[in-house]
Amino acid sequence: LMIMSMLVTLVACLRIPAPRPLLFKLLLANTVLALLLECTGRITADLHVNNTILYNAFAVVEFALVLAMVASIRVLRKAWLWGGACIGLAAMAYDASATRGAKFILTEGVLVLSLVVVVMVLVLLWQLARTSTRALQLLPEFWLFMGLLLFYGGLIPAFAMIHFVFRNDQGMANLLWSIPPILSTARYLLAAYACVRIARDIRQGSHG
Fold first, then answer.
1. pLDDT tens figures, 95-152
2. pTM as predicted
3. DSSP codes, 120-157
4. In whole angstroms, what is the distance from residue 44 CA to residue 48 CA?
5. Dihedral of the CA atoms 35, 38, 42, 44 (nearest 10)?
6. In degrees rounded to 5, what are phi and psi of residue 32?
7. How far apart are CA 35 and CA 124, in angstroms?
């Protein structure tokens, strides 16, 4: 289902008329990279090759793309964005050095990345609510960032619990590991809806 939702988003994004807004160019890049990661992850898993380094690296790349998406709306100060980027990258680097990130998912680092994204997106949505002349639910950006808020917000309790139950309850840990793909599916479906809305707005000449 997760890969299918990514494919739906990819098609919806490609159907946006030119010139495609920067936010949706970044979404397209993110979706393509995520698809490549998941396909590679499936293949390497079938071959019993440890692929966690791919997921750790992608977490950093996606974090940068998400911050670029936030920056493209131009409602947050650059100092906030650079500060958040430094905090997230420092957390991933520290976690990698402490836990040998080539072999394990960097749960603590991803937790910090998620917290940074959640704060940024909440501030962005609040600013949009204050400044937009249209109802939030009519803005394509609202649905895209709500998907990101749902995804990263949901990762925080899931990864926080995984950290504590992994050694003591493998069954619960496996259950918790099933949550991110569900969150990702919801995120990409909301992103696809955002693409449909922006395409309609562009054709009607009502965006912006």
1. 888 876 556 788 889 999 999 999 999 999 999 999 888 888 999 999 999 999 999 9
2. 0.91
3. HHHHHHHHHHHH-SS-GGG-HHHHHHHHHHHHHHHHHH
4. 6
5. 110
6. -60, -45
7. 27
